[in-house]
Design a protein that fits this description.
Structural class: mainly alpha
Distance between the termini: 35 Å
Radius of gyration: 22 Å
Shape: globular
Number of domains: 1
Number of helices: 24
Helix content: over 70%
């Protein structure tokens, strides 16, 4: 079955329109990533509605292209002007600007490109090999197991987020509360609608996503008066190029960071920032010359950029197999799937396994295009750093409003967009991480439905049913507080050691 789906997916992906739209997505992602202050998550939220007008096999790879291009693009201003374009590139600023001062900026950019390509490709191959067996296991779990896994995932996302755990818990509860608006999934009873017809079926996901992720970035940029980040040092002013000897010297670090990024990517809530810092710290600890890190060490660029890009593919594993988005990026991809009439999870894999494998293979194809386009366009994107944000903000705002309206053509969606935009802005100002809110909102209905089914099956004896007939679900329930506490302690230590990562805006 897996082999058949893989071969069918290979046939589906061999289309020119897919290649063209992925290329457009990659260039758009690299462009946005190269702009300090414009994040990958904002680009995906704003460009999400464009995918509605495409075939799922074109629209979703287009967004994946934006994703991959944006994560790499953030390394360009990080290396040239010490301003990470994305939170995932914060660790790149440790050595990138120093290399630019040594007139090795072009070499640093090419190392970031090669290591990103290698880490992304290797992790995608591992993801393709693992996703089939994981999906088979996912198909065998029932409502109690699903409820236990989702509950654990929500807590993991909350404790590994940025900032104070209590604030994350408040945001999670708010997200779960908002997910209750509309109809009860079990009894179809209306609740918390206050007689507003526009939300009688629930708060629409897409205006919520665009509002929470895109509008706060625009508001913050306006607040800062859209300062120009241009600098005399911006751009490539040297002829240094990456050599085979450089790659050979950094290859062990690249392989190590690939495994780190792949492992972190499969953990819900961790993301690229954690990968980059862990990869960088591991490279420094394993180096025979750790004193050179932070002073212009090419190996530092390789470690951080490999790790953060190796996270990209594995984040799709919990999304495609269980329907659980692991981070903000995959939450937006979930929105794209839902808008296309597809619901990620065991049923999608069972009913449209060829489509799932086609999307995974599209990721590999995107990596090849990414390497070619990145190599050709490095000089151009080095100039993008100097573009004034004030010129792009009005266009971004228009895309946000048009995208929210076009899906349902409902004016009420614009009010919802603004409401969540204001909420997201206030949360950013008060240092509340919106990730738990978004995940609670998306996973709340699934958690409620699976929990309700479990209680029905328990027939009044939930604990007896759980521990005698559902040992796997019971194991998850028992392990949840221990896993949550362990990850909380590890997360606090990481944030204490690398406080810059906590302020990086979510890593995207």
């Amino acid at each position: 079955m897996i082999i058949e789906n893989f071969l069918a997916g290979l046939q589906l992906i061999l289309r020119l329109d897919i290649v063209l739209m992925m290329s457009v997505g990659l260039v758009a992602g690299m462009f946005v990533g190269a702009l300090p202050g414009f994040t990958t998550i904002m680009a995906m939220a704003v460009l999400l509605p464009l995918s509605f007008f495409m075939d799922p096999l074109v629209g979703i790879p287009f967004l994946i292209g934006v994703y991959k291009g944006g994560i790499y693009g953030g390394s360009i201003p990080a290396i040239l002007v010490a301003m990470p374009g994305t939170g995932a590139s914060v660790a790149t600023t440790f050595d990138g600007p120093a290399l630019t001062k040594k007139k090795q900026g072009r070499k640093a950019l090419e190392m970031a490109l090669f290591s990103s390509f290698f880490g992304d490709t290797a992790s995608d191959v591992i993801t393709i090999l693992l996703i089939g067996p994981i999906a088979i296991v996912a198909m065998m779990i029932g409502a109690p197991e699903l409820a236990a896994v989702i509950f654990l995932s929500l807590l993991v996302i909350t404790v590994t987020g940025r900032g104070v755990f209590a604030k994350g818990l408040v945001m999670l509860l708010l997200g779960l509360l908002l997910s209750l608006v509309g109809q009860d999934p079990l009894g179809s009873m209306s609740r918390f609608t206050f007689d507003f017809f526009a939300i009688s079926a629930g708060i629409p996901l897409l205006p919520m996503l665009i509002g929470v992720f895109a509008l706060p970035e625009i508001f913050l940029a306006i607040e800062e008066k859209a300062k120009n980040v241009i600098a005399e040092k911006a751009g490539i002013k040297d002829n240094s190029r990456l050599t085979l000897a450089d790659i050979r010297r950094c290859f062990r670090t690249i392989c190590r960071s690939t495994m780190i990024g792949t492992g972190v990517g499969m953990m819900p809530g961790a993301g690229q920032v954690v990968s980059a810092f862990v990869g960088y710290a591991a490279a420094k600890n394993a180096s025979s010359h750790p004193e050179t890190f932070g002073k212009g060490e090419l190996e530092g660029i390789a470690a951080a950029e490999t790790a953060n890009n190796a996270t990209n593919g594995p984040t799709l594993v919990p999304l495609l197999t269980l329907g659980i988005p692991g981070d903000n990026i995959t939450a937006i991809l979930l929105g794209a799937f839902i808008a296309q009439g597809l619901r990620p999870g065991p049923q999608l894999f069972e009913e449209q396994g060829a489509l799932v494998y086609a999307i995974m293979l599209a990721m590999l194809l995107a990596n090849v295009l990414f390497l070619i386009l990145g190599f050709l366009l490095i000089p151009l994107f080095a100039k993008v750093v100097t573009i004034r944000r004030s010129l792009l903000l009005p266009l971004t705002l228009v895309f946000a409003f048009a995208g929210s309206y076009v899906f349902r053509s409902n004016p009420m969606d614009l009010y919802i967009l603004v409401a969540f935009g204001v909420l997201g802005y206030v949360c950013r100002k008060l240092h509340f991480d919106v990730t738990p809110l978004v995940m609670g909102f998306i996973l709340g209905p699934i958690l409620e439905y699976s929990f309700g089914q479990s209680m029905t099956m328990a027939q009044g004896d939930p604990f007896g049913y759980l521990f005698t007939e559902r040992p796997i679900a019971a194991a998850f329930v028992v392990a949840t507080p221990f896993i949550t506490y362990a990850l909380w302690r590890k997360s606090r230590r990481m944030l204490a050691r690398y406080p810059a990562g906590a302020q990086a805006g979510g890593g995207h």
